[in-house]
């Protein structure tokens, strides 16, 4: 369908934006150690500009080096030495007719002391962020006045570098938001007390920027439509703030919500519906006449179009959608919705950032690595040579796509009657529907490159030789781990349960393994059973983002289940399992009429030896066939192996 609203030009201040697609600020940790945007960051943003974003707002950009560090390798406007490289970023985005706004940011109490040289975090008042867990100190009046000047100085640098405007980050519980919100502002000086007092810090920043940068330099502000805290900013307060800032002359309002203390409301995991908070932006848009940007967990262009048609906003903020697919806008405009890799809400991007690493994405193996691994760096020397890909799971399809882009002719052999591999099973538990869409997306991508997929066709050396293949990518997945323990034959696997091949009987179920598969299978079974998850480690969820782990555990326990950590399975009996405490070595029984194994997978290399004998070094292992892992691991490994295969 044509998206007339989505691709209609819009205006912010004196700027014309070529469409209604905004890429809002997201931390990426791709800046140089000097705070400058180097080639990696410039390429990251350039790909999104080329991909169709009409306006890009940079990641949280530091205005203060003393107490304002938000992430490692963070973009900075604290010193004039960044102007040169920042101007290169602006020039690059402008070449694609994309407007650049720099988001000015200070984390306040939402940063740990380790990021600010061991100093105590600061805030509007001495209110502790429960997530960070470190007592902040209240800024003095003089310190607040000094930070106003630093925000203004950052805007001057942004303007000098050629940015089209700046955005004040006044949302998500960061420092400006800490002054705006009664939850964190308990001050009695001029920066607290009344509504006007709470607004004063942001007011002085905005008026200072206008004084130094001129009235035509657009200043936007990101605001919370709600803090989702009992004593925080509510919807009525948010509307009052929006009207206040409109009178102050801001160019637009970017509506978001939540703080670290209200957790998943800022960055929604997969159990939040698309558009769940659209009312927050809609209410503010009704109250003001300046443009409103809405971030709303938007995944599909059709939903973005509806947001605009309904009048919820003037511009749509496509955040993680641009991480999963830099070409989100272009594909939507071309009517190739089915080729857009849509965000899963798996939170892997933020788990990686929290580990201090540059940005990454489950579905996009190039994210954060565009400079080294982007399509422009592909060695296109395939020359139509045939490569057999064994297995049509996510790894096999990704390898085939990368090989096809390089000019090879991959042919996929799949023993079953459909593509997707175990992703078809991973999509069965609640809130995993986006995985089903991803399978369809991979199919559409391969169809666009003319890749042949042979379902119901087991791979053999003879069959592969018959198509004239000169190499083989073995992506045949893994086999469920089944330990050699007494009574283990009574157990079933999570794979069989999710595929509907195993009957789950009884009131009490034990799921052995508290990783991603175990927890999601347990949640799936909790609608009809009381499930105990048995995990030998002291934590469940593996590398799953904490908000997702917490949600899964909460749902399991709400249904009458339990989480048994530090317990190792020793035997499966009739009606129960025996477990051993990993610390005390004491054994105990847990009731279970059905026992479900979710202990991971071992690489399936049943075909490896015969293919290796036939094709030698031209056999490549990828996905679970190489090493067990999650979809992230499978896609990244498959892409990288195909990227370098015979490239030199």
Question: Which descriptors apply to this entry?
Answer:
single chain; 648 residues; alpha/beta; TIM Barrel; Rossmann fold; FAD/NAD(P)-binding domain; 3 domains; 8-stranded parallel beta barrel; 5-stranded parallel beta sheet; 21 helices; 28 strands; 33% helix; 17% strand; globular
Give a description of the structure.
The mean pLDDT is 96. It is globular and about 75 Å long. It folds into three domains: 10-373, TIM Barrel (Alpha-Beta Barrel), CATH 3.20.20; 378-479 and 603-644, Rossmann fold (3-Layer(aba) Sandwich); 482-599, FAD/NAD(P)-binding domain (3-Layer(bba) Sandwich). The two termini are 43 Å apart. The strands form seven sheets. The protein has an eight-stranded parallel beta barrel with strand order 3-4-6-9-10-11-12-13, surrounded by seven helices. The protein is an alpha/beta fold. Strand 23 (567-573) and strand 24 (576-581) form a beta hairpin. The protein has 21 helices and 28 strands.
Topology diagram in text:
Elements: E1 10-12, E2 15-17, E3 21-23, H1 39-50, E4 55-57, E5 61-62, H2 83-95, E6 99-105, E7 122-123, E8 137-138, H3 141-160, E9 165-170, H4 175-180, H5 195-213, E10 219-224, H6 235-248, E11 253-256, H7 278-287, E12 292-295, H8 301-309, E13 315-317, H9 320-324, H10 328-333, H11 348-354, H12 370-373, E14 386-390, H13 394-405, E15 409-413, H14 423-426, H15 433-448, E16 452-454, H16 461-466, E17 471-474, E18 478-480, E19 492-493, H17 494-498, E20 508-512, H18 516-525, E21 530-535, H19 546-558, E22 562-565, E23 567-573, E24 576-581, E25 587-591, E26 594-597, E27 601-603, H20 608-615, E28 619-621, H21 631-644
Parallel strand pairs: 3-4, 3-13, 4-6, 5-6, 6-9, 7-8, 9-10, 10-11, 11-12, 12-13, 14-15, 14-17, 15-16, 17-28, 19-26, 20-21, 20-26, 21-22
Antiparallel strand pairs: 1-2, 18-27, 23-24, 24-25
Helix pairs in contact: 1-2, 3-5, 6-7, 13-15, 13-21, 18-19
């Amino acid at each position: 369908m044509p998206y007339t609203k989505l691709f209609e030009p819009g205006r912010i201040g004196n700027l014309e934006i070529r469409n209604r697609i905004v890429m809002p600020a997201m931390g990426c940790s791709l800046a140089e150690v000097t705070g400058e945007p180097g080639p990696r960051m410039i390429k990251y943003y350039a790909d999104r500009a080329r991909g169709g974003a009409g306006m890009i707002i940079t990641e949280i950009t530091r205005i203060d080096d003393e107490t304002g560090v938000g992430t490692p390798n963070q973009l900075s406007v604290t010193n004039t030495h960044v102007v040169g490289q920042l101007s290169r970023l602006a020039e690059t985005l402008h070449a694609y007719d994309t407007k650049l706004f720099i988001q000015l940011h200070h984390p306040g109490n939402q940063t740990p002391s380790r990021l600010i040289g061991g100093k105590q975090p600061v805030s509007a008042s001495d209110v502790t962020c429960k997530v960070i867990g470190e007592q902040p100190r209240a800024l003095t009046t003089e310190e607040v006045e000094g930070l106003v000047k630093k925000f203004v100085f950052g805007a001057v640098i942004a303007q000098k570098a050629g940015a089209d405007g700046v955005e004040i980050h006044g949302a998500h519980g960061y420092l400006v938001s800490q002054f705006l919100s009664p939850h964190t502002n308990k001050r009695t000086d001029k920066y607290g007390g009344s509504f006007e007092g709470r607004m004063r810090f942001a007011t002085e920043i905005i008026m200072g920027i206008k004084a130094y940068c001129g009235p035509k330099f657009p200043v936007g502000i990101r605001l919370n439509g709600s803090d989702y805290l009992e004593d925080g900013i509510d919807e009525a307060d948010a509307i009052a703030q929006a009207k206040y800032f409109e009178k102050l002359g801001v160019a637009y309002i970017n509506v978001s919500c939540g703080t670290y203390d209200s957790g998943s409301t800022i960055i929604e995991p997969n159990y939040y519906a698309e558009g769940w908070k659209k009312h927050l932006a809609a209410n503010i848009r009704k109250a003001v006449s300046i443009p409103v940007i809405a971030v709303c967990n938007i995944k599909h262009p059709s939903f973005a179009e509806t947001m605009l048609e309904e009048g919820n906003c003037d511009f749509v903020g496509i955040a993680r959608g641009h991480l999963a697919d830099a070409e989100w806008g272009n594909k939507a405009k071309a009517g190739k919705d089915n080729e857009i890799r849509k965000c899963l809400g798996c939170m892997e991007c933020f788990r990686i950032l929290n580990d201090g690493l540059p940005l990454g994405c489950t579905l996009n193996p190039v994210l954060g690595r565009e400079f080294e691994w982007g399509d422009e760096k592909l060695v296109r020397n395939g020359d139509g040579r045939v490569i057999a890909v064994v297995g049509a799971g996510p790894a096999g399809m990704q390898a085939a796509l990368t090989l096809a882009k390089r000019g090879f002719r991959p042919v996929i052999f799949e023993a079953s009657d459909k593509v997707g591999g175990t992703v078809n099973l991973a999509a069965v538990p609640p809130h995993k529907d986006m995985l089903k869409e991803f399978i369809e997306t991979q199919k559409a991508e391969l169809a666009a490159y003319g890749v042949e997929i042979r379902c119901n066709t087991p791979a053999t050396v003879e069959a592969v030789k018959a198509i004239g293949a000169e190499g083989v990518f073995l992506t045949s997945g893994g086999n469920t781990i089944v330990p050699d323990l007494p009574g283990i034959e009574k157990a079933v696997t999570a794979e069989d349960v999710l595929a509907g091949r195993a009957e789950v009987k009884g009131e009490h179920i034990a799921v052995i393994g508290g990783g991603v598969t175990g927890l999601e299978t347990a949640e799936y079974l909790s609608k009809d059973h009381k499930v105990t998850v048995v995990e030998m480690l002291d934590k469940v969820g593996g590398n799953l983002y904490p908000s997702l782990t917490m949600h899964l555990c909460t749902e399991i326990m709400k249904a009458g289940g339990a989480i048994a950590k530090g317990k190792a399975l020793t035997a499966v009996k009739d009606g129960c399992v025996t477990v051993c405490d990993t610390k005390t070595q004491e054994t105990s029984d847990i009731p279970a009429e059905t026992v479900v194994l979710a202990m991971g997978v071992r690489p399936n290399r049943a075909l490896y030896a015969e293919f290796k004998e036939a094709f030698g070094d031209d056999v490549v292992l990828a996905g679970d066939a190489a090493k067990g892992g999650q979809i992230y691991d499978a896609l990244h490994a498959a892409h990288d192996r195909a990227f370098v295969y015979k490239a030199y």
